Amino acid sequence: MTADPLAPLDLAFWNIESAGHPMHLAALGVFTAGSPSAAAHAADLLAARAAAVPGLRMRIRDTWEPLGLRRSLSALSRPWPATGEPLTAALRRPLASAVRRSLAFGGATREPDPGFDPLNHVRLHPATADFHAAAGALMGHPLERTRPPWEAHVLPGEDGARFAVLFKFHHALADGLRALTLAAALMDPMDLPTPRPRPAEPPRGLVPDVREVPGLVREALADAGRALDIGAAVARSTLDMRSSPALTCAPSGTRRTAGVVVDLDDVHRIRKSAGGTVNDVLIAVVAGALRRWLDERGDGSDGVAPRALVPVSRRRPRTAHPQGNRLSGYLIQLPVDERDPLARLTRVRTAMDRNKEAGPHRGAGAVALLAEHVPPLGHRLGGPLLGQAARLWFDVLVTSVPLPGFGLRLGGDPLGAVFPLAPLAPGHSLAVAVSTYRGRVHYGLVADGAAVEDLDRLARAVTEEVSALTVACDH
User: How far is CA 474 from CA 266, 303, 439, in A?
Assistant: First the structure.
């Protein structure tokens, strides 16, 4: 394992984090226990297997060496190349190294932790009757930034029939797909398809080939155009703000979580009857649940259409090196103000179709792409300000995390349910993540513990909205 610089979006997630707003994503997996000692056995297995997973031994270290002077001098002190190699080629290697290092000024690298101890990352907790209550308390604690930024918490059930594992991964270490890969590596061994390796990139010199200059100029102009489009779209999105005070809050530093399980067959019935995609239905369910929740708590839903950020993965499937966040996003207004469930679904479908037609590289939801145009020092200095600006950009996160279609096991005990849990942006009171696993849809809700004391009521509203859509489609 070697050190590598954090990708721009990884660096943004690393610097946005604060003590009151941890930037880790998580998943709460619930297993059927085959014996009273299943939870303890699972903790032992996780600790033993973690040592063999290279990605779990990587820590993130800040880099502050200006100009890479020490590295370039050490490179120049090496013996000269074999006779016959041009002098310019011999000099280009250390100079290129120095330039790359200077660009990392104020950045961070992902590198092996020489003192890695899996026992620092896998913890067995006392038995609990409420996995989500325990997960909520753990979600409020930031990960240790001086060690590999991940944890696994094993939660035995009081009834002895189940146990749960809460996996936490810092967003700078992994996005949803990468976190899935790392967590799956800790499950029981199974035969998986071999990922296709990425094609090798040709080596680049310090100065680009003259023949490449027109293409580079066109690419730079296109990037600038996209950045302007995104900025203008963000500005327009703030002109028609119709959110609810229930979705914003002063941070308390505490978290609550809740989970909902929905039959995937019901979702497919709604999709086939009303049109659209499965994702359209899942987003429309969130809109309807918010309407029910706001009305019941007395906040009112009329005239409310909060902006939802729907992340979009730009990662190519089955790549061998899924390092680094590769995300864009769509921004839509959730039709909470619409009374009819089918009309809500139609409005969601129309908005998502419009986003897809424009593509994930333009529009207000694609702000994450701007991270690639910010130098590392800009991320360092602007990260806290960017985090505080999240509430001006969107009101609630609604993200989908893919899971494998096959069943997972840990120590022979089957994984029955898995609830994805998204990080909560500063100023926001709620984040929603959705996964499909073995014929069921799992909604994971994360909320500020002080602002949303009735998160269980919102969870029930999700189930009620699916029922309402099913009934509406049957008539």
Answer: 11, 28, 21
CA gap 346, 340 in Å, rounded: 10
C-beta of residue 411 within 8 angstroms of C-beta of residue 386: no
> Following DSSP, what letter does each residue of 352-400 receive, concatenated?
HHHHHHH-TTSSGGGGGGGGGGS-HHHHHHHHHHHHHTHHHH-SEEEEE
Paired with 31 in beta bridges are 163, 415
Q: What's the CA dihedral at 78, 79, 85, 90 to 10 degrees?
A: 20
Cα separation of 144 and 132, whole Å? 22
Amino acid residing at 107 = G
10 Å CB burial of residue 349 (0-12, 13-18, 19+) is buried
Q: Strand, coil or helix: what is 407?
A: coil
Give the pLDDT score at 242: 66
pLDDT tens by residue, 16-34: 888 888 999 999 999 999 9
User: What is the C-alpha separation between 433 and 401, in angstroms, rounded?
Assistant: 7
Q: Which residues of the chain have pLDDT under 70?
A: 1, 64-106, 190-242, 314-327, 360-392
Q: How far apart (Å, rounded) are the C-alpha atoms in residues 251 and 384?
A: 14
For residue 348, give the H/E element and its range.
helix 341-358
For residues 439 and 261, is the Cβ–Cβ distance under 8 A? no
pLDDT at site 79: 36
Quote the tokens at residue 469: 């859509």
Residue 194: CB atoms within 10 Å: 8
pLDDT per residue as tens digits for the range 227-268: 445 455 555 555 455 678 888 888 888 999 999 999 999 999
Residue corresponding to tokens 């103000």: 337
Name 194's Cβ contacts closer than 8 Å, sequence gap at least 6.
Answer: none
